[in-house]
């Protein structure tokens, strides 16, 4: 047994705010690399020397809050990722770079064993503590020889009972073992909607819990747009066509202010990474298994919501219909109230070249705090991370709303009337990547405070030093 006292500085820096202080992001955690709660120093030393753990190769990609924990995913895109799912406390802690505790256990994260988690990209957790885990199955996708021995699976895990409830391996024609890339998901009662970022068979995979069945809906708007595939995050250029990734679920629609009838069909929002468009599709289409036949058009059911000023990865919607998303090429976080016009009322909340580097995922805790994981993915895809500098940040802001997973019985949602609902949108982007709107000439009425961006340097370093505390921990 040994004791160690480590001084830890708690930073509480504010991230650059572009518009006048409605939503203020603060940096709540920051890491140079992901490290884990190793069972012993011997196990840790062995993992390092055997290459089971290579810190430069571990990226944090997904984040979901539940019951005072942040659950995070570390997809096995490269070798040296000892656990692909883990967690750490969401309570104001003593460390700004907490160790990740493999979840639910080290054994359940063993690489090479198809009966346990292999490559988790994202998870979602319902209010009852059912965790929906997307395990892509194949690993080492960024290496020359990807390993494709295990099927793509959806695993439902009961956090409170600490047990697996269900494992659903997808059929080859839904999410193939060799080509699928299950990316992100939303839960809609009995149904789960999952984006498949597959290079040659992208779409939305639908899972029905009641029937333990799955199918895939394909549409041209779910594929990346070659004219929007090139963009830059700081100095790093991304130039590869990337299909559907981010997905968000709109609130239940109350059909009229007087009627009590609530339409169970909701709107699913999605965007390919290589696209400037936000699209939506009615869950009525997704829930109908016969929609999966052929490449159907769904006129009036797929909508082109409008253009953004840059590409996005993860997106999230609140139970009051407000969408939050990152603008990757613009180092910024934006929001849109979906009862208003997308073209006219997108707002950039924060822009910061240091802290906002690839907003991969968003989560909302039960206290109404939005948390964003910014993870420098643009560097990770080009080589090992430079672990002498910060690579991952959690940025939080109080938004006073809950996640889409929480019904608000008093909330009346009347969606924005879309202009063209009778024609099927074409997935072509009229704005080419070289002509992305700049700050000053961005999409109509994006609320950007030019002064804020001019003073960026000053604001970026406005770190507020809170204090030095001593973190003492016992280790057996
Ligand atoms: C990683 O965490 C373990 C404790 O689990 C610790 O012993 C080790 O020193 C850490 N490694 C680094 C490089 O911080
Ligand atoms: C949520 O708010 C409660 C009451 O203010 C507080 O005790 C709890 O720590 C908060 N949870 C998080 C994750 O911040
Ligand atoms: C959950 O179960 C696993 C064994 O399957 C165990 O290793 C782990 O400690 C348990 N977690 C909790 C929080 O009890
Ligand atoms: C659900 O479907 C999968 C097939 O993907 C099957 O392996 C599993 O046994 C099914 N579970 C139940 C409870 O029927
Ligand atoms: C996707 O591409 C791979 C190889 O490039 C090929 O083997 C596979 O059949 C393709 N899948 C589909 C659904 O087109
Ligand atoms: C499902 O889709 C098929 C084919 O488009 C259609 O004929 C059928 O009416 C739909 N079912 C429901 C319940 O909407
Ligand atoms: C969204 O916009 C509507 C209509 O302008 C407004 O009534 C509502 O309060 C807004 N919602 C939020 C969460 O700001």
TrEMBL record:
Subcellular location per the Swiss-Prot or TrEMBL entry: Secreted
Q: Which GO terms describe its cellular component?
A: extracellular region
Report the SUPFAM superfamilies cross-referenced here.
Answer: Calcium-dependent phosphotriesterase (SSF63829)
Q: Which residues form the signal peptide?
A: 1-21
* Keywords attached to this entry: Secreted, Signal
Q: What is its main location?
A: secreted
Which protein family is named in the record? Belongs to the major royal jelly protein family.
* Disordered: region residues: 419-438
Family annotation (InterPro entries):
6-blade_b-propeller_TolB-like, MRJP/yellow-related
Query: How is this protein named in the record?
Result: Uncharacterized protein
The UniProt regions of compositional bias labelled Low complexity, in chain numbering, are 419-434
Organism ancestry: Eukaryota, Metazoa, Ecdysozoa, Arthropoda, Hexapoda
């Amino acid at each position: 047994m040994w004791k160690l006292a480590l001084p830890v500085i708690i930073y509480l820096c504010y991230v650059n705010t572009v518009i006048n202080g409605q939503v203020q992001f603060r940096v709540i955690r920051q890491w140079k690399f992901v490290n884990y709660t190793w069972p012993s120093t011997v196990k840790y030393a062995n993992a390092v020397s055997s290459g089971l753990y290579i810190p430069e190769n571990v990226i944090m990609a997904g984040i979901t809050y539940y019951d005072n924990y942040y659950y995070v995913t570390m997809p096995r895109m490269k070798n040296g990722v000892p656990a692909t799912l883990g967690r750490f406390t969401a309570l104001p802690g003593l460390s700004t770079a907490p160790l990740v505790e493999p979840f639910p256990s080290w054994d359940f994260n063993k690489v090479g064993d198809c009966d346990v988690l292999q490559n988790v990209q994202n998870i979602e957790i319902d209010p009852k503590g059912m965790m929906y885990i997307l395990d892509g199955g194949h690993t080492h996708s960024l290496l020359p020889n990807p390993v494709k021995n295990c099927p793509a699976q959806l695993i439902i895990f009961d956090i409170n009972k600490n047990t697996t409830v269900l494992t659903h391996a997808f059929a080859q024609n839904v999410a193939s073992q060799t080509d699928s890339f299950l990316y992100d998901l939303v839960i809609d009662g009995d149904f789960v909607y999952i984006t498949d970022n597959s290079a040659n068979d992208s779409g939305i995979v639908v899972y029905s819990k009641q029937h333990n069945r799955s199918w895939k809906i394909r549409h041209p708007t779910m594929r990346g747009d070659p004219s929007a595939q090139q963009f830059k995050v700081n100095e790093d250029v991304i130039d590869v066509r990337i299909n559907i990734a981010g997905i968000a679920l709109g609130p239940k629609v109350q059909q009229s202010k007087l009627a009590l009838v609530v339409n169970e069909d909701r709107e699913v929002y999605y965007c390919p990474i290589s696209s400037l468009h936000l699209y939506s599709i009615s869950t009525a289409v997704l829930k109908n298994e016969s929609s999966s036949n052929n490449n159907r058009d769904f006129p009036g059911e797929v909508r082109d919501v409008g253009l953004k000023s840059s590409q996005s990865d993860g997106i999230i919607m609140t139970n009051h219909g407000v969408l939050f998303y990152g603008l990757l090429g613009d180092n910024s976080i934006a929001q849109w109230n979906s009862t208003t016009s997308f073209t006219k009322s997108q707002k950039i909340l924060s822009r910061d070249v240091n802290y906002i580097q690839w907003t991969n995922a968003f989560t909302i805790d039960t206290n109404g705090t939005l948390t964003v994981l910014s993870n420098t993915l643009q560097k990770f895809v080009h080589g090992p991370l430079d672990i002498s500098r910060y690579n991952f940040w959690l940025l939080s802001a109080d938004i006073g709303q809950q996640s889409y997973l929480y019904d608000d019985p008093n909330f009346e949602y009347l969606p924005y009337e879309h202009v063209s609902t009778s024609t099927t949108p074409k997935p072509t982007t009229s704005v080419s990547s070289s002509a992305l709107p700049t700050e000053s000439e961005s999409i109509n009425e994006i609320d950007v405070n030019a002064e804020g961006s001019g003073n960026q340097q000053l604001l970026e370093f406005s770190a507020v030093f809170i204090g030095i505390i001593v973190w003492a921990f016992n280790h057996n």
